[in-house]
Amino acid sequence: MSEHAALLDVAREAVAKATGIIRSRPNFSVSAKGDRDLVTDVDTAVEDALREFLAAETPEIGILGEERGRSGDAGDLWWALDPIDGTANFARGIPLCGISLALVDGAQSTVAAITLPYLGVTYTAAQGEGAFANGERVAASAASEMPDAMIAVGDFAIGELADEKNRARLLLLSDLGARAQKIRMYGSAAVDLAWVADGKLDAALILSNNPWDTMAGVLLVREAGGAVVDRDGSEHSVDSAATIAVGAGLRKEIVDALDRAYGVVR
């Protein structure tokens, strides 16, 4: 078994454990951790359980989680974990949320697992080996015309400089909304990126890049034949400012729309 395959098995088991915890906790508490930013006790329970599991299975690999920060070895190889991506959806009983786990090596992810616990699907990928949904290979969209494109857009910015950031988002929505088949806002980067990999969406525009949110989905999209770039069209990495995932045929159209929106705001 290759190293990637062995670590993918670890990731797959980890997100399965997370699904079990979520399904065993129908009642939970919700609190605010920032401006319009929620956390539940299920988020922390999942992260704590997966940290314990990953530390036991891969003690040489550090962990960066959304709720507890960084622990373990601070080298080039680390797990990026979002215990529940789409917490606001989860807290309201909206089933569009996911557990996202990636193994990051330097600036790129090499192993990924995203499970959508209420939809019964787990997406997995290892570098160079393709992307899969419940064990079946998936492929990104081949769409090349904007009128055929269903595009997901990430959440609006909150906190410092939110007004400035959201001006560009509104311009982008106006541009794409006038030309694309449909615009959607699902509220979970894990869902958006997994569905680009699965060809359900033609593009997902996440105008931020928290590694726990994005690094698993980035690998899924690339292994499914899609492209993932930064806002300026350069190849996406862990240090990128944005996460723009797209079927390869729409890459230029999407990057051009971003240039127009952010060019006005500069």
- The total of helices stands at 7
Helix content: 25-40%
Rg value: 18 Å
| Strand content range | 25-35%
The count of β-strands is 15
**Strand arrangement across the biggest beta sheet:** 4-3-5-6-7-8-9-10
Organism: Amycolatopsis heterodermiae
Pfam families: Inositol_P
Keywords: Hydrolase, Magnesium, Metal-binding
Protein name: Inositol monophosphatase family protein
What does this molecule look like?
The protein has helices at 3-23, 41-57, 87-91, 162-177, 189-197, 211-223, 251-265; strands at residues 30-34, 37-40, 62-65, 69-71, 77-85, 98-105, 108-116, 121-126, 131-133, 136-137, 150-153, 182-184, 203-206, 227-229, 243-246. The protein is of the alpha+beta class and 266 residues long. An eight-stranded mixed sheet has the order 4-3-5-6-7-8-9-10, with helices on both faces. Strand 1 (30-34) and strand 2 (37-40) form a beta hairpin. The N and C termini lie far apart (50 Å).
